[in-house]
Amino acid sequence: MHILVLGAAGMMGRKLTTQLVRQAKLGERPVSKLTLVDVVAPDRPDFAGEVKLHAADLSTPGTAEVLVGSRPDLIFHLAAIVSGEAEADFEKGYRINMDATRSLFEAIRLEGARRPYYPRVVFTSSIAVFGTPFPDVIDDDHVLTPLTSYGAQKAIGELLLADYSRRGFFDGIGVRLPTIVIRPGKPNKAASGFFSGILREPLLGQEAVLPVPDTVRHWFASPRAAVGFLLHAAVMDTAPLGIRRSLNMPGITATVAEEIAALQRAAGDEAVALIRRERDPVIEQIVAGWPRAFDPERALALGFSGDTSFDEIVQIYVEDELEGARS
């Protein structure tokens, strides 16, 4: 199996690649080749099979055609700019999150027109496709009403994914990721970044800024669970999806106060004391339009599974990032 990972240098791309290398197969098929692409060259994994590394911008004309020309069996489309940056730079957001996605899908269609080609495409979407008004718990039939440019771009990507799949150009599945916590590394430009920051920085003995009230509730998953979603999407039977190709993923609903309580149980009062409350009305406004909880019935019925508690999410970060760094 030849796997193409777009956005391979990002946090999710790196963790996905690590797991692909560790497994060395998907389902019953061995992974023989990895093509890893990002705007900066991804690190080369310790993989026994063939590895191709590319520093490329998917939105640049001709790039998608070159990458698809190698006819990968499976494509993980993780490449995107995050919510805060997409809101701040309207043109860049649509170029990267929408135009590049359309270019990829078109390249697959045109490659298949030359010679039969039908890859699986796993597209990372977001719960940002939903916006107010919504119920306290969103079910699988809730209408998409994005209130940010990022959410609109992801919703457009979902519609394209469904239509290109309906037309038989590829076998697509959209994975609506919860907000991923705890993200390792440095803060990014996502408006949701503080959800990780108020845990990650104190666990590292550093101060963190909390820009919203403790009562804010949101929907979360760990990086480990998110990689599991992507791998399951890559091998599952997509026939039950019909034309509804995008799914709400399982997650944990928690308030900021419940996040902080999990931090206290894991690291004590000294860690909690490193959180500095500094309200940011821009972030507050963005977050106010985000979902708080889901009933992901379709995803659960199709075999997806996630974290069991916020304490587990904190423990996963400790195991994978802190203890892993010391080992």
What can you see in these coordinates?
The protein is an alpha/beta fold. The protein is 42% helix and 18% strand. The chain has twelve helices and 14 strands. The chain has helices spanning 11-23, 63-68, 83-88, 90-114, 149-166, 193-203, 223-235, 256-267, 269-272, 281-288, 297-301, 310-326, and strands at 2-6, 25-26, 29-30, 33-38, 50-55, 74-77, 120-126, 171-177, 179-180, 208-210, 217-221, 246-248, 252-255, 275-277. Strands 5-4-1-6-7-8-12 form a seven-stranded parallel sheet, with helices on both faces. A three-stranded mixed sheet has the order 9-11-13. A two-stranded antiparallel ribbon has the order 2-3. A hairpin with a 2-residue loop joins strand 2 (25-26) and strand 3. Helix 6 packs parallel to helix 8 (256-267) and helix 8 (256-267) packs across helix 12 (310-326). It is globular, with a radius of gyration of 19 Å. The two termini are 32 Å apart. The relative contact order is 0.13. The model has no long low-confidence stretch (mean pLDDT 95).
